[in-house]
Design brief:
Blueprint (H helix, E strand, L loop, with lengths): L13 E4 L2 E5 L12 H14 L7 H5 L2 H13 L4 E5 L2 H12 L5 E5 L4 H10 L2 E5 L4 H10 L6 E6 L11 H11 L2 E5 L14 H4 L11 E6 L9 E5 L1 H10 L1 H4 L6 H16 L1 H21 L10 E5 L3 H13 L2 E2 L2 E2 L10 E5 L6 H17 L4
Helix pairs in contact: 1-11, 3-11, 4-5, 6-7, 12-14, 13-14
Bound molecules: 4'-deoxy-4'-aminopyridoxal-5'-phosphate.
The site of 4'-deoxy-4'-aminopyridoxal-5'-phosphate (PMP) has 14 residues, from helix 4.
């Protein structure tokens, strides 16, 4: 039985829980934008002008100027022709996948994909072929064996949310081209974090902008590095118009509150204006990963500010997480069914706004707890 913890502060690098402060290593607010003054000001101004709710779904009367401004900014940011907002990453994946592959289609999914991608696959009723984590060769064989004329869709996280490693996007896109498939990339954890200007995994891998590649569809969330809430899909204009007509989670849900869209637009401007946030996040990541590796921790191939520490047993994972909690570091233990059996782990996620002393405290506490549990 898992229980909820109530946070009495804002979502900062330190959280106030039951009257005590804890260094927060469990958040996807990678750049600390959830509390950025520009995002707060943009939301407050939008609330003043437009109120708190959108009142209807987008196709009825819910499309407001802040939604459109946000979509234009997102398309430019992702170097795509167009973008469409969704009410959450979960809702995007649940609506998008059935719109891209129906009962006659075949979907190819990495085993470690996010739950929302799998749920979207199930709702689509397409045939589902799961390939081993990042195994391009197995995927190639599955594609070889699939019916040539079937609609084919490859779906993958860009940054795997529990492992922090990267999907081999160039190879996946090459396979998509070779087999007439589409590639849907869930860039929830890459957007704002990866690439020289934070545009995400496609920028990191230097892939051609999706405006020029009909086969590449990028989904991303506004709820992680962008600090707010909601999600989007960016791609060719015709595809976006099609999604606006076909995705049931877009059609049949009230539009995002306009202030939420305004905050995301402000977040994109901050990404450009304050690249030092991304630099600091990666500096923390390098320092932490180096120190943990030196301690002998298994970081499970992570290449990003999501740093799993493999423990391999649920009771010990909880014991280490509890020991860190007693030292005022919040690091969640992730256990099955969220991750496969025997891959129980701590999941450290870093933020640009962590202070060096918070990271020092985490490393010292982990060293002690790891020794006590015989892990290092
Ligand atoms: N995709 C991935 C890879 C995620 O990690 C998450 C959320 N943790 C989602 C989608 C869902 O996004 P949201 O939280 O905006 O619903």
């Amino acid at each position: 039985l898992r229980t909820l913890r109530s946070v009495a502060s804002g979502q900062e690098a330190q959280l106030l829980i039951d009257g005590q402060w804890y260094a927060n290593f469990g958040s996807n607010n990678y750049l600390g934008l959830a509390n950025h003054p520009d995002l707060k000001a943009a939301s407050a101004a939008a609330i003043e002008q437009y109120g708190v709710g959108a009142g209807a779904s987008r196709l009825i009367t819910g499309t407001m100027a802040p939604h459109e401004a946000c979509e234009t900014a997102l398309a430019a940011f992702k170097r795509a022709e167009a973008a469409v907002l969704f009410n959450s990453g979960y809702a995007a994946n649940l609506g998008l996948i059935p719109a891209l592959a129906g009962p006659d289609g075949v979907i190819f999914a990495d085993r470690a994909n996010h739950a929302s991608l799998f749920d979207g696959c199930r709702v689509s009723r397409a045939q589902l072929k799961i390939y081993r984590h990042r195994d391009v060769e197995q995927l190639g064989r599955l594609l070889d064996r699939s019916a040539p004329r079937a609609t084919k869709l490859i779906v993958t996280d860009s940054v795997f949310s529990m492992d922090g490693d990267l999907a081999p996007l160039p190879e996946l896109l090459a396979l998509a081209h070779r087999h007439g498939a589409r590639l849907l990339v869930d860039d929830a954890h890459g957007t704002g974090v990866l690439g020289p200007t934070g545009r995400g995994a496609c920028e990191h891998f230097n892939l051609a902008p999706s405006a020029h590649d009909e086969r590449l569809i990028q989904m991303g969330t506004l709820s992680k590095a962008l600090g707010g809430f909601g999600a989007f899909v960016a791609g060719p204009r015709a595809l976006i118009a099609y999604l606006q007509n076909r995705c049931r989670t877009f059609l049949y849900a009230t539009a995002l509150p306009p202030a939420v869209a305004a905050a995301a637009t402000a977040a994109l401007a901050v990404l450009e204006r304050e690249p030092e946030r991304r630099d600091r996040l990666w500096r923390h990541r390098r320092r932490c990963a180096d120190a943990l590796s030196r301690m002998g921790c298994d970081l499970m191939g992570s290449e990003t500010p999501i740093l799993p520490v493999r423990i391999g047993d649920p009771a010990r994972a909880l014991a280490v997480s509890d020991a860190l909690w007693r030292r005022h570091c919040l690091v969640p233990a992730i256990r099955p069914p969220t991750v496969p059996k025997r891959t129980d782990r701590l999941r450290i996620s870093l933020m640009a706004t962590h202070r060096d002393e918070e990271i020092d405290r985490l490393l010292a506490a982990l060293q002690d707890a790891g020794r006590q549990q015989g892990l290092i």
